[in-house]
Structure formats: structure tokens, C-alpha cells
Amino acid sequence: MLTGRKYLLDLTPEQAAFAERISGACRAVWNTALEQRRTYRRREAFIGYHEQARQLVEAKREPELEWLAEVPGHCLQQTLIDLDAACTRHGTWRVHWKSKTRTRPSFRFPEGGKITVERLNRRWARVKLPKLGWVRLRWTRPLGGAVKNATVLCEGQRWFVSFLVDDGIQTPVRHAIPETAIGVDRGVAKIVTTSQGRFHHKVFATGREIEHAAKLQRDWARTRKGSNRRRRAARRVEAFAAKIRRRRAAFAAKTAHMLTLDHDLIVFEALKTKNMTATVAPKPDPERPGAFLPNKAAAKSGLNRAILDKGWHRIELAVRSKARYTGTSVITVNPVNTSITCHECKHVEAKSRKSQAVFVCASCGHRDHADVNAAKNILTAGRAELAQARPAARVGARKPRSRVGRKANRQATAVQDLATASPGLAGISRH
Predict the structure, then answer these.
(1) Are residues 25 and 162 located together in one domain of the fold?
(2) 371 included as an active-site residue
(3) Known catalytic residue: 166?
(4) What is the bridge-based pairing of β-strands 329-333 and 265-269?
(5) Phi/psi of residue 124, each to 5°?
(6) What is the pTM of this model?
(7) What is the 3-class SS of 322-348, one letter each residue?
(8) Which of 24, 111, 351, 386 has its CA 20 to 30 A from that of 158?
(9) Is 160 found in the same domain as 11?
């Protein structure tokens, strides 16, 4: 199966500068091609990858666009392919621009046959990339398979290379420990809580580190735009953010390994993190034009930061990736009322949730940790989803229009039944 291998690069100053130029060219191609697609959409017309790739070849012949010809052409073509996939999946108007300051530099070499990796010694190896030449990398683990492509990216002040490798391993038909299921509740106080009563949590930044990060932000804000001091301050801020991202990724990988190793079924809530962290809409005051009523935006902003800091989506992605090697099934269920439903008597009442950690059923008096009780409800809903038979459609019943709506209805019915029963590319620019 396909998997990733990430290594730290040791670029020379000339190679680092050339890598910056390649990422800048890819960013310029992305933004210009996206604007071209939107222009065509405004005219109720369409332009796709093949036409834009043809125009890119013509643009590279222009005298004022010599900087396009000096970078690897396959990286620019891969940028157009990625843009086409993004527009197909999300729509042209929902695809974001790539900013010079906010977007991390990256580019991809799509042809693995042109990439050569050689081991030098116990700690170092080297890779030959088109037009970049031989580049040293820190050897931390074997490749384990044939290289399909390579992505070069910059995090903070360091450059990395990520190989897509085919390791030749097949997903097991069954898990080594069958009939072992677990429900997972994701939260803020405890990042991961399982239905077995286990908690997986980690603080990604200590109090002193948070204060240091705030100082770095203040130093960056006080500098003059375009100055060298501002660039150095921005690099320090990015380096700290990259450190936190690495800690978050390591926690997600470790948690995914522990969950998939001992369970053949893992059930998550179908959480839409993007919607949950949306900004609160302002509330205009009807009695005072131009004034607004309190809307608890500060508290919601703090909650949004806490949710994003925990990396809920990254944990689910890590579990799904690791599950390919263990044969674990990963499903999601409707999260409605999982935190206020008693696992013993199935009574639903918001008053049963006494606090963040205490759950006392208002009907039967069952007492449990609130997150553990929610994880048990998630597991019950997951088992019901798997065991739910597909009955014939009832006469006169209204069928949900969307697949998401039909799935939510099936899960809700299963839980209820279980409880009852028990311009063209020639105009491209660098910026």
C-alpha cells in the first residue's frame, strides 16, 4: 500500500534559494490559473487542466517569463493537476489563494523514476532531485519500498522531503484480535477518551512556551513591514508553530498506534471541525442603529482555539492510516445527544451533564465520567450501525435527498431500536 516517509533535508544555501524560487513559481502558477478559472466561470465558460497546461508551455517561451523555464516543468504541471483536483472537489470559488507570507513553500516531483535515493552512512543519505541535484537528508528510517513521488516543503527554517512509497504490504482481511470494538470521544479537557475508560492527553505547549510565543508575536507586530527584522521575527514565529505541529503529529501517531493495535472496530463521531470553529455572527441592536449586542464572541474564540489546538481531525486521519496495516474498521456515527444520553437507561436530558467531567442520569441515577459515558454511547451507535438490517422502504415514507441525510436517519433509527429492544497563463507574475 502507499505510505509516506518524511526526512529532514540538508540544503546548501544555493539549493535553498533555488527551492524558494521553485515554490514561488508554483505559487504564481496556482494563483494565475485559479484567477483564470474564475474569469471563465464569470463568463459562464470553462477551462480545464489540459488547456492550462498547453498555455503554460507557451508562457515559458516568453522572454519576460524566463524564471518559469528555469524551474522543473513537472512541478508546475503538478501544481495545475492539484488545482484541477481541488476545483473539482470543492468548487472554483471555494479554493483558496496561496499567499507568499502565509503559505508554506512546497512543490512536488511527480515522477518517482527520476528520483534516486542512496544511503551514505548510518545517519545520512542523499537524494537526486531534478534540477536540484544531489541533496543530503537525515536518514531516520528505511524507505521500505519504491518511491512514487517526492514533495519538498519548508517548515519554519528547515526543509523536508516527503516520499510517497509503495511498501508492498496488503491490508489484513481480519484483525489479529477479532470482536474488539471501542468508541472514541474527542474533547478539549481530554483529547481522546475511550469507552473503556482510558484517557489519552498531552499538552503541546507549556505556560512558559505560550508566553514566549506571545512575545514573538509582539516582536513581529512591532517591526516595520518589509524590513529584515520583520522577516527574522516571522521566521521565529513560524519555527515555534512548526514545533507545536510536530508534537501534535507525534501524539496523533502514537494514539493511532495504540487504538488500532488492540481493536478491530473504532467508532468516532462525525464531527465537522470547520463548522464547529466558525466565527460567531454579530448581533445588531435593534434599538440602537450601528450598535451590537453581546454575542460571547470572545468565549467562542477561546473555544475555537482550544478545539483547533487538540487536532481532532488529525487524530482521525492518523487512525484511518494506521488501520490499513492492522485490518481495523473505522466508522463514524451521528454525534447528536451522545453527551447527554445515559448509557444505562438511554434517557436523554441535558441536566444529566452536571459539569465537564460529571454525568449523573436524572432518571436512573447512573453516575459516570461524562466523556466515558459519551464514548460508550458512540460505541453503541457504531455497533447498531453495523448490525442494522436494510429493511424495505415503507410506503409513503419520505426518503432523504442526500446520502448524509440517509445515513443520519439510519443511525438515529438504529439507536432508537436498540434502546427500545435493550486571464491566460501568459499574464503570470512572480507575486
Answers:
(1) yes
(2) yes
(3) no
(4) parallel
(5) -130, 150
(6) 0.80
(7) HHHHHCCEEEEECCCCCCCECCCCCCE
(8) 111
(9) yes
pLDDT digits (tens, 9 = 90+) for 107-161: 999 999 899 999 999 999 999 999 999 999 999 999 989 999 999 999 878 999 9
Q: Hey, what's the torsion of the CAs at 203, 209, 211, 216, to 10 degrees?
A: -130
Give the residue from 166, 193, 225 where a domain finishes.
Answer: 166
User: How many distinct helices (H) and strands (E) make up the chain?
Assistant: 11, 16
Is there a contact between 152 and 129 (Cβ–Cβ < 8 Å)?
yes
C-alpha span between 75 and 28 (Å, rounded): 12
Residue 57 in domain? yes
SS3 state of residue 117 = strand
Mean pLDDT calculated for residue range 159-184: 92
Whether 269 is catalytic is: yes
CB environment 305-327: b (16+ within 10 A), e (fewer): eebeebbbbbbbebbebbbbbbb
- Write down the pLDDT at residue 400: 44
171 within a domain of the structure (yes/no): no
Boundary of a domain, candidates 135, 166, 197: 166
Catalytic residue among 155, 238, 264, 371: 371
Which one is catalytic: 185, 238, 264, 385? 185
pLDDT per position as a tens digit, 57-105: 999 999 888 899 999 999 999 999 999 999 999 999 999 999 988 888 9
Domain that holds residue 142: 2-166
Q: Which residues pair with 217 in a beta bridge?
A: none
